[in-house]
Design brief:
The protein is an alpha/beta fold. The chain has two domains: 53-216 and 405-503, Alpha/Beta hydrolase fold, catalytic domain (Rossmann fold); 222-395, Four Helix Bundle (Hemerythrin (Met), subunit A). It is built from 17 helices and nine strands. It has helices spanning 101-105, 109-118, 139-142, 146-149, 154-171, 186-197, 223-235, 237-254, 259-266, 276-292, 309-318, 326-338, 356-363, 387-398, 406-411, 416-423, 473-501; strands at residues 9-10, 52-58, 71-78, 91-94, 121-125, 179-184, 204-208, 427-432, 450-455. An eight-stranded mixed sheet has the order 2-3-5-4-6-7-8-9, sandwiched between helices. It is globular and about 80 Å long. The relative contact order is 0.16.
């Protein structure tokens, strides 16, 4: 099996991938203490957050002086709780991911819940080339070819955020207001990188589930799929083994006469199956997403899912009657992910609800994240990342050649502990070890101010989601630690400002 592009979503997707009560005014500062709990939602339904939608006349290319037409960058803003510029009210900025910004905003309850406690303004800028923020007037024109897509890069996106927040602060006479960055998944990577690249713009960053080390050979290439596999094995060895067996069976059935039709019928697909590999990729994505969102309560972040969905998937596979075929067991299990509500009559394999074509461009240029699968440690088929075929796929799709070492050249990654300790400060890297992207993130404290908050049972940027009545104590403590650290950043900023004013 060969997958040309890594899963994103929020992400990332495997995009990542990625989350509002109206604030009442509080005097600044008012912070959460260690023992404090965030407001709880009564269930896990998406909360409705209030915000104003605005558009900023944004530069297409920040790094040249070519006369390109500007574009309208969408951003969401709420200043209901903001104590204003005279009291240096902080600004919380979420670094938009690879998708519609409203989707990320409603799934990032932590930022909204912190705003009244800090007297903060909340700003969610949309990432260029996603959602409504399209250069050249439309997605069709923006995605037309390599020339129009050329400015879809992380560097340009960070410059967008820097220019937007600088202009916003100037217009509000809020130049002295501290900015704290938040981000999950790819947005978490952007938050960490922005803190490093623009330390004069933001005083700190919470980078949740941010795999800034998932490049070149900084971490073993098998890491992602090993973590997915271990998540299933910890729930059930027999479930792990069923999945491991299934790939050869799918391939074998697909090669028989009418085999593809049989597979399409078994898995209730809406249309014809072109190859068994398409089905395998569909299953691969579901297992990876399940590992990402193995949350301790029901959620609808990617799909409507029960609490600890991997456990439920494995129950369906393991509890099937004796004699149930491997393929039928796989179908029963995978239906927990793709059809937990039971409303789908059949499944499409090629939906692209989260803007993955834009991410594919990024993966084909600078966001090259090599991955492989090991026969012994993984439940997936063995395959090795092949840079040559990867480049060929990218050329066939976009007529571009990937630059696999550019991200580490631009943002670093090798010898990251020494570099971050020497040049970095005020960054929280938060991760849950159930999340396969955690393997490419920072999991150990680097210094007193570049810290790692790691939870054994946490999944993909769980800490950024809204608090609920079902939050386990370890999650409550993780968020309290994050608040305490952010409080320290802001207090330190105010002390330095006060000292400057008194000089």
């Amino acid at each position: 099996m060969a997958k040309p592009f890594p899963n994103s979503l929020a992400f990332f997707l495997l995009l990542i991938s990625l989350f509002s009560s109206t604030p009442e005014s509080h005097r600044l500062p008012q912070f959460l203490g260690k023992a404090s709990r965030l407001p709880k939602t009564q269930n896990n339904l998406t909360q409705q957050y209030t915000y104003e939608t605005r558009y900023f006349h944004q530069t297409v290319d920040h790094f040249s002086f070519t006369d390109l037409p500007k574009f309208q960058q969408r951003y969401l803003i709420n200043s209901d709780y903001w104590v204003g510029p005279n009291r240096m009210g902080p600004i919380f900025l979420y670094c938009g991911n690879e998708g519609d910004i409203e989707w990320f905003a409603v799934n990032t309850g932590f930022v909204w819940e912190l705003a009244p406690r800090f007297g903060a303004m909340v700003v969610f800028p949309e990432h260029r080339y996603y959602g409504e923020s399209m250069p050249y007037g439309s997605q069709k024109e923006a995605y037309k070819n390599a020339s129009t897509l050329a400015h879809l890069t992380a560097e340009q996106a960070l410059a967008d955020y820097a220019v937007l927040i600088t202009d916003l602060k100037r217009n509000l006479s809020a130049e002295s207001s501290p900015v704290v960055l938040f981000g999950g998944s790819y947005g978490g990577m952007l938050a960490a990188w922005m803190r490093l690249k623009y330390p004069h713009i933001a005083i700190g960053a919470l980078a949740s589930s941010a795999p800034i080390l998932q490049f070149e050979d900084i971490v073993p290439l098998e890491t992602f799929y090993d973590i997915v596999s271990n998540d299933f094995k910890r729930e059930s060895t027999s479930c792990f083994n069923t999945i491991k067996k299934s790939w050869n069976i799918i391939n074998s059935v697909g090669q028989k006469a009418n085999g593809l039709d049989h597979l399409a019928k078994t898995f209730h697909l809406c249309g014809k199956l072109k190859s068994s590999g398409d089905l395998s990729d569909w299953l691969d994505s579901a297992y990876s997403f399940l590992a990402m969102v193995d949350y301790p309560y029901p959620s609808e972040f990617l799909m409507p899912l029960p609490a600890y969905p991997i456990k439920e998937v494995c129950k369906e596979m393991d509890n099937s009657p004796d004699g149930t075929s491997v393929l039928d067991r796989i179908y029963k299990g995978i239906s927990v992910y793709y059809n937990y509500t039971g409303i789908a009559d059949c499944f499409e394999l090629d939906d692209d609800p989260h803007g993955m074509s834009g991410w594919n461009w990024q993966a084909c240029t600078e966001m090259v994240m090599p991955m492989s699968s090991n026969r012994d440690s993984s439940m997936f088929p063995e395959w090795e990342f092949n840079s040559t075929s990867y480049a060929e796929d990218c050329w066939n799709q976009f007529q571009v050649t990937p630059r696999p070492t550019w991200i580490t050249t631009e943002f670093g990654g090798h010898d990251y502990k020494s570099i971050l300790k020497t040049f970095g400060s005020n960054i929280i890297f938060s991760n849950g070890l159930l999340d396969p992207w955690s393997g490419g993130s920072v999991l150990e404290n680097v210094s007193e101010s570049v810290v790692a908050l790691v939870t054994e049972k946490g999944a993909h940027h769980l800490d950024l989601r809204a608090a609920t009545e079902d939050d386990p104590d370890w999650l409550v403590k993780q968020r309290a630690s994050e608040v305490e650290i952010i409080e320290g950043w802001i207090e330190d900023y105010y002390k330095k400002k006060k000292a400057t004013f008194n000089m």
